[in-house]
Amino acid sequence: MTFEEVIGHFRTLNADPTCFGHLDVFLDVSTADTLPQSSQFAGINAELRILRDKVQFGACAIVATRDGMFGMMRMFEVLSAQYFKAIRVFRDSVEAEVWLASQQDVSGSES
């Protein structure tokens, strides 16, 4: 996964007429070969800001098993929290899935 691929994914979502409404995110970066640069988070946040016009982001669970990536994703968590109802980084995918499901339960009970 490269920075260009991440930006391209957001732009594809933005161009997709069927992509709208509420969106929860499960992001597993455990197998990513390279760490993102902190300077790239501004570009990602710009794409999130644009996409937020058509999508309401709910919960975002990020799985990062390696120390360096976990640290970078924690930084992303802090910098991107304003775009999500809840965002959290995990080292274990099962724990992330359980948390994400619990966030959906919380959202569903508010309606």
Could you characterize the architecture of this molecule?
With 111 residues, the protein is α/β, with parallel strands linked by helices. The chain has a single domain (3-110), classed as Alpha-Beta Complex (Protein-Tyrosine Phosphatase, Chain A), CATH 3.90.190. The protein has helices at 3-15, 40-51, 67-80, 93-110, and strands spanning 21-28, 55-63, 86-90. Strands 1-2-3 form a 3-stranded parallel beta sheet, sandwiched between helices. 15% of the residues are buried.
**How many β-strand stretches?**
3
Compute the number of structural domains.
1
Provide the helix percentage: 40-55%
What is the overall number of helices? 4
Mean of all residue-level pLDDT scores? 92
Task: Produce a short descriptive summary.
With 111 residues, the protein is an alpha/beta fold. The chain has 4 helices and 3 strands.
Key attributes of the depicted protein:
single chain, 111 residues, alpha/beta, Protein-Tyrosine Phosphatase, Chain A, 3-stranded parallel β-sheet, 4 helices, 3 strands, 51% helix, globular
